[in-house]
Design a protein that fits this description.
With about 500 residues, the protein is α+β, with helices and mostly antiparallel strands. The protein is built from 10 helices and 17 strands. α6 (about 365-385) packs across α7 (about 425-445) and α8 packs across α9. The protein binds calcium ion (4 copies) and zinc ion (ZN).
Length: about 500
């Protein structure tokens, strides 16, 4: 069993402390009294007066009663206690997260609430500016989903316990993206004690296809049937975590931002739609983009499109989707199978957004455009590897393609024998030359090493890069990350397809 103390997420504890949860100001005396903590005893007449019940939850195995810690009636920052009472009659367990507060702590503020609010807003603005600086790419317009501070909430007098006990004002600043930042301002001196992003990590629940029904069910006979939710598809749905939500109701998070006019919302972050409801595509896009960014971060890339990527699902009726670098937005069409129902389409488009973030204006020439298409297909396939149960791995968009291909349904493939001799001048066709080389790098170096090399190389691409230049960048990244032997193997892969050209 994991340490129960960690079960209290930052967001939940913040909600507790900020009084965002329905609080019942009932003394905790209804159940056996937890012992007072340290010197708070002096202020805790009757032993439990330093606790205020917040709520009780009933689970499958028991009930869970949460308390917030008080000191002379003031909330103690991050101080909590929870009692778990099992259904099976076994003894209750208590997790005591109270912070020691010295008995003599002065609770009269020298700083006014107004001054604390001003300090809180300034601290939040500094944090937002730092985030903006990390977003890097020159000439980028600020993102609507970014954390620019907007409204300063009330200042609430509170107590910090532990090693450096003091009286503080808690100031919560709402940001444009819907998140909030908490600043603790010393109520005696006016100095800023701590700045914390509160709502950075809501975790929601969503229903998606992962990566798509054809791969999940290994069934080439599935078709769109006019966006119907029919029984054969039941086994393709998965209930998944929607990570990194920052908005309290919408599908807006650290890495993806739903811009739909008919954006779905849920106060409990539950987004459980089937495919015949428009919310399904919004959830799928949010999930696909967020999982892609989290994967990039897990293999070391903390600054490749590390921002809330704007998207619009079901944006138009064509059977097409695109990334628009002017607005930094991905738009998904509804022709045939709704494009955003297939995570491999989401990942393909996200590939364009990642490349444009790494190399602003990327794709300025036909060859660069083909590299963009090839990378999008490659990204879709490599992200599907752990999810598709090995089913026809090099097949891109198995589900979306049921509307316009014969079986096996693939929009394109990453394992063709194409070389530069097969060029047609059409970026998607020629993208298969590039994706075939990348896929071979994947098979040769292993998935994670290949993904690291390929994504790393893209930081060096020119917007109008050629096959030969980009191939040199990949070889260079392989040398830097994996050494000369790996670089030589990668060079042979590109040379074989005529992609290394004549330097
Ligand atoms: Ca749909
Ligand atoms: Ca972007
Ligand atoms: Ca489609
Ligand atoms: Ca696939
Ligand atoms: Zn594309």
């Amino acid at each position: 069993m994991p340490a129960p103390k960690r079960a209290l997420t930052a967001a939940a504890s913040a909600a507790l402390l900020l009084g965002l949860l329905p609080a019942t100001a009932v003394a905790a005396a209804s159940s056996p009294a937890p012992a007072p903590v340290g010197s708070t005893a002096g202020a805790a007449a009757g032993g439990t007066a330093d606790l205020q019940r917040v709520r009780t939850r009933v689970s499958l195995t028991g009930t869970h009663t949460w308390y917030r810690q008080l000191y002379r009636g003031l909330p103690v920052v991050d101080g909590f206690l929870v009692r778990h009472t099992p259904r099976n009659g076994k003894a209750a367990t208590v997790v005591d997260g109270r912070r020691p507060v010295p008995a003599g702590l002065d609770v009269r503020p020298a700083v006014t609430a107004g001054r604390a609010r001003t300090a809180g807003l300034a601290a939040a603005a500094r944090l937002a500016a730092q985030d903006g600086a990390q977003r890097g790419a020159p000439g980028k317009r600020p993102l609507p989903g970014g954390p620019a501070p907007r409204v300063s909430g009330d200042a609430r007098l509170s107590v910090v316990g532990g090693a450096h006990p003091r009286l503080v004002w808690q100031v919560v600043t709402r940001t444009a993206g819907g998140g909030s930042i908490r600043t603790l301002v010393d109520a005696r001196t006016g100095s800023t004690v701590a700045v914390t992003r509160l709502s950075d990590g809501f975790r929601g629940t969503g229903r998606v296809f992962d990566p798509n029904p054809v791969a999940a069910l290994r069934d080439q006979r599935l078709t769109d049937r006019g966006n119907k939710d029919y029984p054969r598809l039941a086994g393709a749905y998965r209930t998944v975590a929607l990570d990194d939500l920052t908005d309290r109701r919408l599908l807006i998070g650290r890495w993806a931002q739903d811009t739909n006019d008919d954006a779905v919302s849920s106060a409990r972050h539950r987004f459980l739609f089937h495919r015949d409801r428009p919310g399904f595509e919004q959830v799928s896009a949010y999930y696909g983009i967020t999982t892609a960014q989290r994967y990039l971060r897990s293999i070391g890339f903390t600054d490749a499109n590390a921002e809330p990527q704007r998207f619009a699902a079901d944006a138009f009726a064509d059977d097409n989707s695109y990334y628009d670098p002017e607005t930094d937005t991905i738009s998904f069409g509804t022709g045939g199978v709704d494009d955003a129902e297939d995570l491999e389409v989401v990942w393909h488009e996200y590939g364009h957004a990642v490349q444009d973030d790494q190399s602003p204006g990327f794709g300025a020439t036909e060859e660069a455009g083909a590299i963009g298409e090839g990378f999008g297909d490659y990204l879709a396939v490599t992200l599907s590897v752990p999810r598709g149960k090995g089913y026809d791995r090099p097949c891109v968009a198995d589900w979306d393609a049921t509307s316009y291909t014969d079986a096996p349904h693939c929009l394109r493939r990453t394992d063709t024998a194409k070389t530069v001799a097969d060029r047609t001048g059409e970026v998607h066709d020629d993208g298969e030359i590039w994706s075939a080389a990348l896929w071979e790098v994947n098979r040769t170096l292993g998935r994670v090493q290949a993904d690291r090399v390929i994504v790393e190389s893209q930081f060096y691409y020119r917007p109008d890069t050629t096959f030969a230049q980009a191939a040199q960048n990949v070889v260079g990244a392989a040398r830097a990350l994996n050494g000369k032997a790996a670089a030589d193997r990668v060079a042979r892969i590109f040379a074989k397809r005529g992609l290394l050209g004549k330097a």
